[in-house]
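When time allows, look over one protein, given below as sequence and tokens. The question is which stretches look regular and which look disordered:
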Amino acid sequence: MGNYKNLTILHSNDLHGDFLAEKLDMALLGGISMLSGYINKVRNEEKNVLYAIAGDMLQGSVIDSEFKGISTIEIMNLLAPDIASIGNHEIDYGLAHLLFLERCAKFPIVNANLFIKNPYTRLFQSHKILKVDGMNIMFIGIITDEILMGMKKDMLGSFVDVEDAAREVGHICNAYRNIDIDFTILLTHIGFEKDKQLAAILDPDWGVDLIIGGHSHTLLEQPERINDILIVQAGDGTSQVGRFDIVIDTDENAVHSYEWKLIPIKSTYCPRDELIEQTILRYKHETDKKYNRVLCRFPHALTHPNRYQETEMGNLFADILKDDFGVDVMLVGSGSIRKTTVSSMITLGELLEIFPYDDKAVQVSVTGRQLKRMLRYVFRDEMLEGGHTEFYQVSRGLHIVFDRKAGDFSVLSLEQRPIDDKRVFTVGIQGYHYENFAACFGFPVEEVYQNGKARMLTTSLLDVLVERLSAACMINVQVEGRILLS
């Protein structure tokens, strides 16, 4: 007869400054106040409860960006997670600032595979063993190597590297063999597909029981199970929280049974946390004074429901920038558009939440053959199979029809003319994509220099968007069939 103990694990990922509740069907949905209310409710109802966040607490809100994450950490301290890991957007304000925020946090933040190269040193506490009802629960943090792409401009970026995740997990688990670890959880931010790949190569003797992931914003109906490791993720934001009710066999240090579900954070059964609400509203009052002015109106609300398809917001931004820069093609990173909907009247604050990553724009000159290579790489199998990859919203005039079965374009034209392999086209891209050109487009940026030097178009995309939207009136934006998968 085994020795069984209960453990409830609540988990979020990719909160991205989703602080405020939204009205849905006469009820409120989401928001940190009701999320905290639900977590505290469960903590009062159940004996052994842990709440974990799998990266990307920062960015996505004016309340976050105006105070460079300090506001978010204050709010997270009130939310009081038991453990958190870092995500790629934790680096957006710079590595030194992230280390400052980590010191401000009143909860442990773990990461095992982000290192200083020389002297060879981990930047964060690699793991944390939490003691719950006599059990030792070990959490290990893992980050995607995409964090290095975001550090190209950081003065400390060249001193940092990301180590192989599986190897670091093995090092830590082997180092604690003499301690009775009852349950081992990886708190990752690498994306759901890579979580599955990681689970498949972990040595069962290391004793990993569960992967709580983030980065790909994946909503699941039930956990994935690979190599006897359960894998979960809870979408993004605060509209839901993952809940595990686990029975642990402490003799075998393994899951005896479990139930997992996504819990909607609704006002019908989630109480409000007034202290958190007051803190959020204090910050909101400050940002509203600065950012609540209206930029422009649209005939209808605009949407960006999926980063891997043409969207209204994507068309709006790509067309504004194409017209302003005078390039043949403008490619706007779909992942840099951070909200799925915007009302028909957009304020400066809303624009900053929709498009929070201000960046420069660079013009590159590419041949038609190179443009095809760039786009073929974007439409590679990894993207088509659901991987977390870069994708682009394209400006008017570019028409793409990609044939999944053939693995190539059935139509690729500009202004209704097929792309000529030998013609040179001017293409506008964001600075992030220029600095990580090979990772984004599949070949070194040096190959395009033979067609002409790269040219700075602007040092601030947001300045351009604010100026053009302020001067516009009733822009009618539609999905036009610029990007089609057949």
